[in-house]
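[Automated response] Your request has been received and processed.

Submitted sequence:
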Amino acid sequence: MNRESFDFLLVNKHLKKVGKIILYLFVTMLLGALIGCGVASGNPFAIFFPSTWVHFFEFLS
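Generated structure:
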């Protein structure tokens, strides 16, 4: 494949789509975590406390 036949605009277009999808997934995961912590503990911002993450990883192991 030579450089002249490679379409950088097409690659750029697809990378932007993938970036948007990753951003949307991250935002929805963050919102889900905030809602879940709000329902479980009453404080939606408890997801940002280090003690929450320690408890989460202790639960997994």
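Summary generated for your ticket: Helices lie at 8-41, 50-60. The two ends are 49 Å apart (CA to CA).
If you did not submit this request, please reply to this message.
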